[in-house]
Amino acid sequence: MRFTIIGAGAIGGVIAGYLAYQGNNVTVVDINQEHIDAINKKGLTIETAQEPIVVRMDAITFDQLTKMADKQDVVILAVKSQHTENVMNQIKHLVGENTVVISMQNGLNEQIIASIIGNKRTIGSFVNLFADYIEPGLIQYGGVGSLYIGELDGASTVRILEIQNRLKAWGNVQVTSNIFGYLWSKLAYGAILTATATVDETMEHLIADHQNRELFVEIGTEVLQVAEQLNIQAEAFDDWDPAIVYSPNKERNWYVIHAQFDELVKRLQTYKKKKSGIWRDLAVHKRKTEVSEQLEPVIEKGKQFKLELPLNRKLLKMIKELESGKREMGYHNLNELKALIGN
């Protein structure tokens, strides 16, 4: 089984590194020529909380991949959400009868992939790990989280179990019959982390502050309301339990909610990565984030059920203004959001 991993950044780099480290046949692909050159010259370095590992693997540019003719075995798509459709259209000639494409991305990209190559060749995945691309040839792996994979129809298949076994090179990979339950749960969790990116402060600091927690709960609840209307059961992961947070009628057990957020803060304190990837895109890379691709589908689906989602609409507007330079990071952003819930 050959793995072709498109996107050698945070997620793709970590997964590729651990697969190759355990002897799997891995080719990593990226548009960054310097990154590819560095990997070919001295290997990919993954900096962990313990000690760095250096892994050798084949590395090619995306342009080189598109000029290939051989059908691929397992393609792991780890590019930014906004590039999904373009990438898939450029590599669909490499997708054969037995090729599978796994989306290891944020958002609901499985649906985009399946629209191009079909459900049969598409596998969903939920990834929650904290990592960052630092420089050519170097990925900082900030904290272990969870990785679930699943057929889109929830079936247990021979191929999903074989892929699970290979991916165990990374860690405790699990198969789920409810992949969309994890993806929607992460959308709610991710919306909260997106709100933290509007302030130049660590995630743990902002989540630890009790004055911010009602806002975070309301942001997550808006997303989970849409999931409920779609008859999707949101799943718990990594000290995040959507069932504890979700309460559209605001009948909440704040003792239990605070306990969950406190556990989440403890987890974040163990991570080397202290700020979200969205914050890094805004503050360091000065580039467009994935937030539009994550929140716009939620907002659009909400319209079908007459759900306004005012907090997520405002949050999306803020991120776009931060991307364009029309807004600055600061606590005033959280205060604007709080004003929408009367705080």
Structure description:
The protein has 343 residues and is α/β, with parallel strands linked by helices. It is 48% helix and 18% strand. It folds into 2 domains: 176 residues, Rossmann fold (3-Layer(aba) Sandwich), CATH 3.40.50.720; 158 residues, N-(1-d-carboxylethyl)-l-norvaline Dehydrogenase, domain 2 (Orthogonal Bundle), CATH 1.10.1040. Helix 4 packs parallel to helix 5, helix 7 packs antiparallel against helix 9 and helix 13 runs antiparallel to helix 14.
How is this structure best summarized?
Helix 7 runs antiparallel to helix 9 and helix 13 runs antiparallel to helix 14. The protein is built from 15 helices and ten strands.
Tally of distinct domains = 2
Write out the CATH superfamily name of the largest domain.
NAD(P)-binding Rossmann-like Domain
CATH fold description of the largest domain: Rossmann fold
What is the number of helices?
15
Shape: globular
What structural class should be given to the helix and strand makeup? alpha/beta
Name of the CATH first level of the largest domain: Alpha Beta
Mean pLDDT: 94
> What's the oligomerization state?
single chain
* First-residue to last-residue Cα separation: 54 Å
Care to count the β-strands? 10
